[in-house]
Amino acid sequence: MMKADRRYLILAACLLAGCATTDSGQFSESSSQDTSAEVRLKSVLLEDDDIAGSAIDVTIDGERIVLEGFVEDDSQRQRAEQLVREHGDVSDVDNRIEVK
Predict the structure, then answer these.
(1) Sign of the dihedral defined by the CA atoms of residues 81, 50, 69, 29, in that order
(2) CA-CA distance, 69 to 56, in Å (whole number)?
(3) Could you report the per-residue pLDDT of 7-19, keeping only the tens digit for each?
C-alpha cells in the first residue's frame, strides 16, 4: 500500500508542475498561439486561388505584418503581400517570403 501512495504522490507532483505560473502569478501561455487577426489573414491567403497551398506564415508584430514562408514564383509572393495589405489593419508589411 505504501508503494501505491508514493506513486500517486509522484503523479500529483508531476501534474502540478505542469501548471506552472509566470513570475507575475499568471499561468503561462504558448507564445506560438496565433491572434485572431493573424488567423484571419492566413485564411484570406488560403482562400486565394493564386497562392492556395503555399507555405506562408503570418505574424503581426506591433504595427507590422510579417510574412514568411515559401511560394513557387514571384507573382505569388507579390499577391500574398497585396492581400495582407488589403485585409490587414496596418500598412507596414515585411515580406520575407522566399521563392523556391
Answers:
(1) positive
(2) 4
(3) 555 555 445 444 4
